[in-house]
Amino acid sequence: MTKQDNKLNVAIIQETPVFLNLKASVEKACSLTRKAARDGARVVAFPETWLPGYPVWIDSAPRAAIWGDNTARGLYRRLVENSLAIPGEEFGSLVNVATESGVHMVMGAHELIGSTLYNTMLFISPDGSCKTHRKLTPTYTERLVWGMGDGSTLVSVDADFGVLGGLICWEHWLPLARAAMHARREVVHVAQWPGVRDLHQVASRHYAFEGQCFVLAAGTVLTIDDVLEGYGSLPGATADGREMLSSMGKAGELLQRGGSTVISPDSTCLVEPLFDACGTIHATVDLDLVTEGHLLMDSDGHYSRPDVFSLTVNTAPMQGVRFVP
């Protein structure tokens, strides 16, 4: 991208993963990324925990939160078995497709570290490097599944077009997390959601204006049928597991409606949010609008008051046990 041509092609993948099947979902992600790159995208964004799917049963299955429920424990075990390890074979496949396609891939995944799952955002660059952000505050029933991230993964990427960053879901209502990311001076921000419903649209549009950046709000389309088909693709899928997943609704019912869109620094949508259908959302963003928008709002510059307010971000990894010689 030359200085005279300050345009950037971006894409949001609003497709259905092969639910709970990591290997098949990674294969699908690689195919979708290659196609998006062939169509001109240089940033390819996926929704929250797309690998291998948001754990929808924690919100929608009646017995999911009952202490000691064997079926809920079994579904959790399946999720752990199909979570991303870094490094690992599936992670290597994602890195390879990003480098081969020359794109910045932003992927949402369940990441297993030790014996704890994290809701993780991967920033894979065309040179094969990767940074990770782990969700700081799992929300409500999500605490049944994920551990809390720390400040060591509140990251951004220095790309040739500017700073690329992102937050996950309700982190967009953590005021100090927003302030920290605005201090990174993003020009493109990926907002990952399970689905970008009305309230999530509001948060994403607010972030675009407050941060004077382009926001890629990424959500998934998922039906009961998709869930059952994905679960059924796993070896050893049980009737009890299928019954709990079936209890979330009727056949064909939508659990996640998508709603992905690309938002300009003035808070307007460059493309209308796509609801109730799979697809890849493409847009060309004019990065000059970021510079022009700072005339009105620079939350880390002329619209800040460091003489009144200050924020300290602890970027040290939080470890419960350290072995010191």
Looking at the structure, the CATH topology is Nitrilase/N-carbamoyl-D-aminoacid amidohydrolase
Query: Based on helices, strands and strand pairing, what is the structural class?
Result: alpha/beta
Number of domains: 1
Mean of residue pLDDT values: 96
Can you identify the CATH class?
A: Alpha Beta
The global form is globular
Radius of gyration: 19 Å
The secondary-structure element order is EHEHHHEEEEEHEHEEHHEEEH
Name of the CATH homologous superfamily: Carbon-nitrogen hydrolase
- CATH architectural type: 4-Layer Sandwich
Continuous helix count: 9
- The amount of helix comes to 25-40%
Percentage of residues in DSSP E strands: 15-25%
User: What are the segments in which pLDDT stays under 50 over at least 5 consecutive residues?
Assistant: none
| Biggest sheet features | 7 strands, mixed
The number of strands is: 13
Q: What is the terminal separation in angstroms?
A: 50 Å
Give an account of the 3D structure:
The chain has 325 residues and is α/β, with parallel strands linked by helices. The chain has a single domain (7-293), classed as 4-Layer Sandwich (Nitrilase/N-carbamoyl-D-aminoacid amidohydrolase), CATH 3.60.110. 28% of the residues lie in helices and 25% in strands. The chain is built from nine helices and 13 strands. The protein has helices spanning 22-38, 57-60, 70-81, 89-101, 175-183, 198-211, 224-232, 239-246, 288-293; strands spanning 7-14, 43-45, 104-113, 116-124, 130-134, 156-159, 162-168, 186-192, 214-218, 221-223, 254-263, 274-275, 279-286. The strands form two sheets. Strands 6, 7, 8, 9, 10, 11 and 12 form a seven-stranded mixed sheet that branches. The protein has a six-stranded mixed sheet with strand order 5-4-3-2-1-13. Strand 6 (156-159) and strand 7 form a beta hairpin. Helix 1 runs parallel beside helix 4 (89-101). It is globular and about 60 Å long. The model has no long low-confidence stretch (mean pLDDT 96).
